[in-house]
Amino acid sequence: MKITAVTIFCGSKPGANPAYISSAQVLGASLASKDITLIYGGGNKGIMGAVANACLDNGGKIIGIIPKLLLEWEAQHEGLTELIVTDSMHSRKLLLYDKCDVAIILPGGMGTMDELFEMLTWNNLGIHQKKVFILNTNGYYNSLIHLLDKMDEQGFMYENWRTKLIVCENTSELINAIS
Question: Cβ contacts of residue 106 below 8 Å, gap of 6+?
Answer without folding.
Answer: 8, 9, 10, 11, 20, 23, 24, 27, 47, 51, 112, 135, 137
